[in-house]
Amino acid sequence: MSVTFAGSPDRVESRLVPEAGFELDTFAISGLPRTPSPALVRALWRAAAAPLACTRILRRRRPDVVLGGGGYVAGPMVLAARLQGIPAALTEADAHLGLANRLAAPFARRVFLAYEVEGRSGPKYAVVGRPIPQAHLGATRAQGRARFGVPDGASVVAVFGALAGARSLNEMAVEAWADAGPFVLHVSGERDFPALRARVRRDGYVLMAQSGHFGELLAAADIAVSRAGGTVWELAAAGVPSILVPYPHATADHQTLNAAHFERGGGAVAVPDSEIARVPAIVDELLADPTRRARMAEAMRAMARPDAADRIADEVIALARR
After folding, report:
1. Do 5-130+307-321 and 135-303 agree at the fold level?
2. Nearest in space to 95 (alpha carbons), one of 248, 245, 256
3. Across residues 292-311, what is the average pLDDT?
4. Regarding the domain with residue range 135-303, which homologous superfamily does it belong to in the CATH classification?
5. Confidence bin at 165 (pLDDT 50/70/90)
């Protein structure tokens, strides 16, 4: 069995896919701005031309099945697959079905949801969780703490922004703990890292733009402070009690829905971005209450779906065989 990818030449897949050793076919596509503008006209033109470009890719590759990863890149490929008679499936990573997936869903035979989504049930839909990298699973607490030089007995707060950065979360963490406090492992994202680096003044605060040892970082943490995107599923699988601060401008406020799912399950505390100043006090409360943290860790593991990737892979293979 062989796997190839298709995507945009100016998105992150153009770097990550070749780095992982897979072939990547690219076509021009971009998201639709929500207000009238020249960018909207360009995006509509690209969207109209994309299915033809995807058809050419499919005719060259001749796949048995197509899996769309969600977002505007997947829509044209799933449509082209339907027109070519190739079975297709979609994945939705958030607690809200995005516009691209809502438009593409009629052309897919299966839609794999990370969360239950109102109005999306029946044989086409399956709630499987969100796939997470296997490399981020299985590290021990001792391995994680050794990796990052955490002293014996120290409490560890892990702070995660987005890939590009989460400015309010990054600012809160540095202001609260740059001079004193618990041991902090802070992944800031590339954008904010240079400005934050000069403000951290102690050995017990490890600031990183990114980490190639994310599984060990999760294993080392007593508490995580994070946005509520895809990272929440990795936090759940690792059983990390979490304070989730949803990105307030996410489409359809889907990060708030994501955070609410884990708060209802007892594994997280959701804090609106407008109230982010409350986070240090909540961290102090949790660090002082190991019994509560243990309950939250158990709840996170109970909500985790570490087999999501395997379930999707098995069903996609079955779809190809049918």
Report:
1. yes
2. 256
3. 95
4. Glycogen Phosphorylase B; (3.40.50.2000)
5. low
181 token code pair: 């406090």
Closest C-alpha among 171, 172, 173, 178 to residue 201: 178
What is the pTM (predicted TM-score) of this model?
0.86
pLDDT score of 164: 55
Tell me the per-residue pLDDT of 205-239, one tens digit each, with 9 for 90 and over.
999 999 989 999 999 999 999 999 989 999 999 99
Task: Catalogue the long-range contacts made by 90-95 (C-beta closer than 8 Å, 24 or more residues apart).
Answer: 91/67, 91/130, 91/131, 91/312, 92/117, 93/130, 93/229, 93/230, 94/229, 94/254, 94/255, 94/257, 94/258, 95/254, 95/257, 95/258, 95/260, 95/261
Of 3.30.70.580, 3.30.1490.110, 3.30.70.980, 3.40.50.2000, the CATH number of 5-130+307-321 is 3.40.50.2000
Cβ atoms of 137 and 238 closer than 8 Å: yes
Per-residue tokens: 52: 């033809």
Half-sphere exposure of 34 (CA within 13 A, CB side): 4
Alpha-carbon span 15 to 21, nearest angstrom: 11
What's the distance, CA 73 to chain centroid?
Answer: 16
> How far apart are alpha carbons 30 and 12 in whole angstroms?
13
Name the pLDDT band for 55 (thresholds 50, 70, 90).
Answer: very high
**How do the domains of the chain map onto residue ranges?**
5-130+307-321, 135-303
| CA–CA separation, 188 and 200 (whole Å) | 12
The whole-angstrom separation of Cα 114 and Cα 233 is 9
What per-residue confidence (pLDDT) applies to 163? 63
For the record, the structure tokens of 95 come out as: 């607690």
CA distances in angstroms from 137 to 21, 223, 270, listed in the order given: 21, 17, 24
Structure token digits, residue 276 = 């982010």
